[in-house]
Design goal:
TIM Barrel; binds NADP nicotinamide-adenine-dinucleotide phosphate; 10 helices; alpha/beta
């Protein structure tokens, strides 16, 4: 598995497992299957209401903590310093971990100054409760403000990013700074699975449209992706993208979608 080196240290596997909308036993089952299949990067959030089940699956998996990369996110209702701390510590409790690898602000908010939230997240980082901090759903302007406001380096911005919804401006901003861009909804919520152009490209390599869509993302410098899947078949297929490469013609065709 390829990794991204994050500002401030830490290495993020370029392919992670998304858990939004996975709940209860279905979530624990899917995360268990994902770790068994080889995923070492799990994406959750306090808002997903599934951190306890993600934690159960991690605890049962028997994979060394150092080999797992776990991301969670603070919801904007909890951006005041005390609330951010309480939310992060509650997430750790549910996950049954003493630290996460990446703690993100889930969405931008105009209600609380960035310096207050990122200041507290930086303290959590100093205390070892997270290994890196970052943001989600920030455009380049907001990200520039976050960088200014944060005592600790911003390691990642997680945004909606998939074939047909590129992030060229954000990537141009992030790459020179080494900030990872993590693609959420990388399969267009599953819709890209039926795209005829991706299907045609995939045929050349014995791959599906979804696998081409994921490959297109992780071939880009500084990009990781966190597809969600419920079935073992789908989650295994999404991991099976490291034995082929897209060529310039493929990329040009995908760029026109
Ligand atoms: N930061 C944020 O604000 C934010 C927002 C949205 C999402 N996210 C993160 O990003 C993750 C992924 O995004 P997402 O859940 O919106 O959508 P997604 O990963 O783009 O798509 C998930 C859908 O694709 C289907 N799928 C998965 N693998 C497939 C395959 N190999 N072939 C065909 N269909 C397949 C899934 O079906 P099955 O479930 O039936 O397998 C599911 O319906 C989330 O789970 C979450 O962790 C973050």
């Amino acid at each position: 598995m390829k990794h991204l080196d994050l500002p401030g240290g830490g290495r993020m596997p370029v392919l992670g497992f998304g858990t939004w909308q996975l709940r209860g036993p279905d979530c624990a089952r899917a995360v268990t299957l994902a770790i068994a299949a080889g995923y070492r990067h799990i994406d959750t959030a306090e808002m997903y209401g599934n951190e306890a089940e993600v934690g159960d699956a991690i605890a049962a998996a028997g994979v060394g903590r150092a080999d797992l990369f776990v991301t969670t996110k603070i919801w904007p209702d909890h951006f005041h310093a005390k609330e951010a701390r309480r939310a992060a510590e509650a997430s750790l409790g549910k996950l049954k971990l003493d630290h996460v690898d990446l703690l993100l602000m889930h969405w931008p908010s105009d209600s609380v100054p960035l310096a207050e939230t990122l200041g507290e997240m930086s303290r959590l980082l100093e205390e070892g409760k997270t290994r890196a901090i970052g943001v989600s759903n920030f455009d380049a302007d907001r990200l520039a403000q976050a960088i200014q406001a944060s005592p600790a380096p911003i390691a990642c911005n997680q945004v909606k990013f998939h074939v047909g919804a590129p992030q060229d401006a954000l990537l141009a901003f992030c790459r020179p700074k080494g900030i990872a861009v993590t693609a959420y909804s990388p399969l267009g919520k599953g819709g890209l699975g039926k795209d005829p152009t991706l299907e045609a490209i995939g045929k050349k390599y014995g791959k599906s449209a979804v696998q081409v869509a994921l490959r297109w993302l992780i071939e880009q410098d500084g990009v990781s992706a966190v597809p969600k899947a419920s079935s073992e078949r789908n989650l295994r297929a999404n991991l099976d993208i490291f034995d082929f490469s897209l060529d310039a013609d493929d990329r040009a065709r995908i760029g026109r979608l």
